[in-house]
Amino acid sequence: MNNLGAVIIGRNEGARLEACLKSLSRQCASLVYVDSGSTDNSVAMAKGFDAEVVELDMQRPFTAARARNAGYQRIKQVFPAVDYVQFVDGDCEVVDDWLAAGWEFLDAHPEVAVVCGRRREKQPQASVYNLLCDIEWDTPIGEAKACGGDAIMRTAAFEQAGGYRDDLIAGEEPELCVRLRGQGWKIWRLDRDMTLHDAAMYRFGQWWNRTVRGGYAFALGASIHGGPPERHWVRETLRATLWGAILPLVILLLAALVSGFFLLLLLVYPLQVYRVSKHVGRSPEQNARYAGFVILGKFAEFQGQLRFIRDALSGRRSKIIEYK
After folding, report:
1. Taking all residues of the chain, what is their mean pLDDT, rounded to a whole number?
2. Cα angle vertex 219, ends 217, 220, to 5°?
3. Are 104 and 117 in contact, with CB atoms under 8 Å apart?
4. Would you give the distance in Å from CA 180 to the centre of its chain?
5. How many whole angstroms separate alpha carbon 127 and alpha carbon 138?
6. Do the beta carbons of residue 299 and residue 272 sit within 8 Å?
7. C-alpha to C-alpha distance for 228 and 178, rounded to whole angstroms
8. How far, in Å, CA of 277 to CA of 152, rounded?
9. Where in the chain is the domain with CATH 3.90.550.10?
10. How high is the pLDDT of residue 46?
């Protein structure tokens, strides 16, 4: 696999970055680490694994998209023979033999631009928020519309699409995949483990901020590719608006102006939790927890949408929304 390299992005990941570098060094010799202002020993650690290091100028607005583009540019400079690039976040470990499996699949399917596998949460039992991530990662296999931050990309397709959009603070991978599919490429998810992710979420506020970022990404994606035929993230945006704003406001207005009995309509929320829980596929307890947070998350997603609208109207560029 001499034509396969890896780009890792991170900041202050500590032991998580070390685990990431170890997992990749066992499978790949062409490594690039992109650091976004770490104050720990991340840069020295990466150099210790013989990785090329790119230290971003943090005077410019940071996005994960910008970091990945910078890593891609360096890997093509230093390792020009690379035809496939595994992008991975520094808080993830790459499962043994994943790179070989992804490489073989891309080599056998020239129409596929991106291949990914299953991202698993490393410690789902550590908190309910880690568990929510683990369930979220459990996505359908086969041809897909998008990948996440961990994926192997064909360099010819990546360059044809123009790489990531540096200005996107969230949702950069699905947006790239929209453009790739528009150019005739395919995205594929294999039925095998790819990475172990360490969300390290132990507080409600972390989960809330992460969900706000998701709502921002929905609104941003819909503003770019919301028209037909793609209708990218339009449904997700409308759902957050309905459940996170319109429905509760209508019920409260009816209760205030007509009758307090209209507050009984709020029972539609537990009913929706019950409906969602029937489609999760885990234990009854995990199904209920996940469904409850999905519905509660609509309020956080709507907050993210409001933040996007504020930024769009003011013409200013929003900073990334971090949760850890």
Report:
1. 96
2. 60
3. no
4. 17
5. 17
6. no
7. 12
8. 32
9. 4-201
10. 96
Identify whether the C-beta of residue 114 lies closer than 8 Å to the C-beta of residue 154.
Answer: yes
Q: Per residue, what are the HEC states of 28-42? A: CCEEEEEECCCCCCH
- Give the other-Cβ count within 10 Å of 263's Cβ: 13
Fold assignment, 4-201: Spore Coat Polysaccharide Biosynthesis Protein SpsA; Chain A (3.90.550)
Nearest CA-CA partner of 242 in 233, 254, 250: 250
For the chain, what percentages of helix, strand and coil (3-state, to nearest 5) are there?
50, 15, 30
**Tokens standing for 318?**
């929003």
Residue 222 CB burial class (10 angstroms; 0-12, 13-18, ≥19): buried
| 186 close to 143: Cβ distance less than 8 angstroms | yes
| Distance between CA atoms of residues 223 and 311, nearest Å | 13
Residues of the chain with pLDDT under 50: none
The pLDDT tens digits for 150-195 are: 999 999 999 999 999 999 999 999 999 999 999 999 999 999 999 9
Radius of gyration of the CA atoms of the chain, in A: 21
Residue in the block written with tokens 């890997």: 75
